[in-house]
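1st attempt posting a full record on here, be nice pls
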Amino acid sequence: MKRRLILIITAALIGGVVLAASLAQPYLTSATRYKAKAVCSEYFVAGRVWNDILADDFSGIHPIVSRAAVSVDQRSRVVKTHVFGIMGRAEAVYRPGYGCALAIGGRPDGQVLDRLRVKSTRWPVAIDEGIQASVEDVRSDAGRDMPADIRALLVIQDGVIIAEDYAEGFDRRVPMQSWSMAKSVTQAMTAIAVDQGLLSLTDKELMPDWTGDDPRAGITVANLLHMTDGLDFVEDYGDPKSDVTRMLFGSRNMGLAASQTPLGHTPGTHWAYSSGTTNILSAVLRRAIEASGENYHYWVYENLFNPIGMRSPVFETDAGGTFIGSSYLYASAGDWARLGQLYLNDGMWDGQRVLPEGTVAYATTASLPDKAPFYGAHWWLNKPLPDGRQRLPGLPNDAYFMGGHDVQRVIVIPSKNAVIVRLGMTRPPVDDDADIMPALAAIVDAL
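the predicted structure (as tokens):
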């Protein structure tokens, strides 16, 4: 009897451990894959110091991320992560030109992407001592109890850098992560592709199974740009089973994975922010570009980055080789500024038209003025909401911006003829609106 009781207790304990491991698996997998991808990109793409990445980039996210062990194989350019050696094993692979991608469903596509060297004039610099002192105070956390970890802060006015400051370990050459600022670049790509006749804003039946009687067949390219596609995509990074987490850290072809989402609203009637929407658009762009006979992976460089002198960008792909248009574009602060200046110039660069006429107006027109006056076509707007609040408190109403996780910003301010670039890892308990924006607004007021 005693032996039987021991066996029952042992079986119960084993079952409990198995159940706990099963419940924890989604958290383990998303945490280790996130860390593998982030470390791989920061090390191989940004070229940062290994110990700095591990010390500075993973606090305040999730305990599993902090505890996940990480290693690098320099020869194969693979970063591996795991917990306790056996759980949540993940690896990310670096491919020159393509950046890093998680090895999901086999080794990621793409071996080497050689690009022609870009001829680029340097940014004109004429430092305004007063603005520079204010920028240094904001960037260095002067007078604040909690560090905001702003790694780059640039102010450009009249096409000239008038102030810039960088955190230790960063400078004007270091490529930095976009997060969702990449969405605005995807809008630029779409505008160019439409202008070249590769696709149309009214195109429908955009994905393989969006055909016939499928209600998603009516979703247009314009709906995707405006985030009004109506798909019931869940953008919740705290839930390892949410659509966005499974897409970014569990799918080989992100656009295809996102396209499986059911329709929740009639296209064109409901606004909802969705990284899945942008990756669907990225997949649509790839198909259109390749159908034209163009080399897809070179196309964005030849049509957008190179003409404005961007030397640093690496637009990372998913394991299937499609640009992750929602989240993963690396570029130096100065090159991010070039993109902002391109929009400030209404798509012109050195007297040449890079973005089709009307691109900027389209990007900065609210998608659904009554329901979402704060969002245009993959760009955020600063127009006051009905309650008077703004996305960028204290900045002019005509400002619009690329926005990304951890408070990445490229802010275009037409009334000041200015562009502001702010990159870093600002996380709670720092409140950007309360702790940073008043000082940034004061800098803008002084322009």
